[in-house]
Amino acid sequence: MRGHRFRGARARRRVGPGEWAVRARVERFGEPALLLLLSERPAHGYDLLEQLPELTGERRIDMGNLYRVLRALEEDGIVTSAWRDDAPGPSKRIYELTDEGRRLLGGWTDALRANQGLVSSFLDRYEKGGDHVPRT
Predict the structure, then answer these.
(1) Distance in angstroms (rounded) separating the CA atoms of residues 123 and 134
(2) Closest of 86, 84, 50, 44 to residue 67, by C-alpha
(3) Given this model, what pLDDT does residue 135 score?
(4) Angle between helix 63-75 and helix 30-40 axes, rounded to 10 deg
(5) Higher pLDDT among residues 65 and 59, named by residue
(6) Which CATH code of 2.120.10.30, 1.10.10.10, 1.10.10.350, 3.40.50.2020 fits the domain covering 29-116?
(7) Which of 42, 69, 83, 120 has a CA-to-CA distance to 18 between 20 and 30 Å?
(8) Summary mean pLDDT of the chain
(9) Are 99 and 105 in contact (CB under 8 A)?
(10) Which pLDDT tens digit goes with each residue over 71-81?
(11) 48-80 burial, b if ≥16 CB within 10 A, otherwise e?
(12) Alpha carbon 96 to chain centroid distance?
């Protein structure tokens, strides 16, 4: 891929004659990734901001968007937050997963597991086909 950017929700775009760039990503994957991190331990926003890219594959997470998502999750009772000043440095708002959040994480896990099965079936079928144009 030569630096071409995807626009909107498109998953593919032509980048040259007979050449395609494909974005195979799970939409809305940030929420389950965030819930997983909070299931491991309570955390503050900057900590989550640093850890999310390893789970989402995104290079850069928008801080403003992260805090909007955390506020929405708190409004829905999925996370709670409280200001803590027991660590060095300024006070930090610490987010923690609720029991409702743990149930939601379980639902995300079930949905992702079902999708994993579909993706695995697709890849297995592709590999068995043998009649495909070689990938470069």
Answers:
(1) 15
(2) 44
(3) 60
(4) 70
(5) 65
(6) 1.10.10.10
(7) 120
(8) 84
(9) no
(10) 999 999 999 99
(11) bbebbeeebeeeebeeeebeebbeebbeeebbb
(12) 18
The token duo for 83 is 């200001």
* Cα 10 to Cα 3: distance, rounded to the nearest angstrom: 16
Cβ proximity of 95 and 34 under 8 Å: no
User: What pLDDT does residue 61 have?
Assistant: 85
Full-model pTM: 0.76
Place of tokens 């195979």: 24
Delimit the domains of the chain by residue range. Answer: 29-116
The answer to whether 56 touches 30, Cβ cutoff 8 Å, is yes
Contact yes or no for 84/94 (Cβ under 8 A) = yes
The tens digit of pLDDT for each residue in 20-61 reads 776 666 667 889 999 999 999 999 999 999 999 999 888 888
